[in-house]
Amino acid sequence: MEQSGTSTRLAGAVQGLTSELVSALRSGDRFRLAGTVAEGHGPETAADPSLAAVRVVGADAVLPSVLLRSPPPDPDDLTVLSKAVHAYPPPADASPTSVWSHWAMRRALLRLDASLDGASGAGPEPGAAWLDDAPWQLLTHQLAVLAALALPGEDCAVARAARRRPVDVARGFVRAVRRRDWLQAAGAGRWLVLLDEVPRTLGLDTGLEFVAQMGGEDARVALQVEAAQLLRTGVLV
Questions:
Q1: How far apart are the C-alpha atoms of 29 and 42, rounded to whole Å?
Q2: What does the pLDDT look like over 185-209, one tens digit per residue?
C-alpha cells in the first residue's frame, strides 16, 4: 500500500512539473526549477518526491532554457538538476534508455552551466547499437522514451539513428496514433519535426494537433507536442 502511495505521489509530481514546463514554453516566461526539491537528508522525502520527478522528466526539466534560450537558467535551477543527476544514477543493470536519459541530463547540465568542463560534464556517450536493427515499432518506442534528445543541432548516436530512419519513425507515429498511445505519438512527433525525408503524406502538423487535442490532458503529452510545435515553427529565441 505504501509503495502504491509513493507511486501516486511521484506521478502527481511529474504531472505538476511538466504542467509548469508547458506553461513556460507557451508563455516564454522564466521557469524556475529550484524550490521543487524536498528538504531532507535523502534525495527525497516520502511526502515530496519532487527530486525523483526531476529525474523522471529528465533533461526536459530545463527545456525552456534550452529551447527558448532566454532567460538563462538560475544557478539554483542548475543545482536542482545536478542533485537529480547525482541522486539517481542508473544501476548496473539499467536499460539502455535509462542510461541514455541520465546521459542526456548530464549533457543538459554541461550545456547550461558554463562553470563545468567536458571532463565533469556529460561523460562518454553510451552505445546505441541496439537501435541499428531494431524493428520500426521498437525504434519508435525507444525514441519516444528518449524524446528529450530531440533538440536542434543535437548530434549523438540516438539522434543519428533517428535520422537514418525517418520513414520508420513516421510509421511508428501513425501506429501510435491509431493505438491511442498519445505519449508515444507526441515523442515520435517531436523527433519527426527534426528529420529530413519525412513523407509529406504523413500530415505531421495535423497529426500533432490531433495528438494535442486527444492526449493534452496528460501534461507529459502536452510538453512533447509543445516542444515539437516550437521546433516545427522555428519560434526559438
A1: 31
A2: 999 999 999 999 999 999 999 999 9
Q: Distance between CA 139 and CA 70 in Å, rounded? A: 33
Cell of 127: 552505445
Is the distance from CB of 51 to CB of 87 less than 8 angstroms? yes
Q: What is the Cα–Cα distance from 148 to 199, expressed in whole angstroms?
A: 23
**Those residues with Cβ within 8 angstroms of residue 89's Cβ, 6 or more apart along the chain or in another chain:** 102
Res 55 pLDDT > 50:
yes
| C-alpha closest to that of 56 among 47, 65, 69, 43 | 43
Query: Which residues lie closer than 8 Å to 184 by C-beta, 6 or more apart?
Result: 140, 141, 144, 172, 176
Cell 525517418, residue located: 166
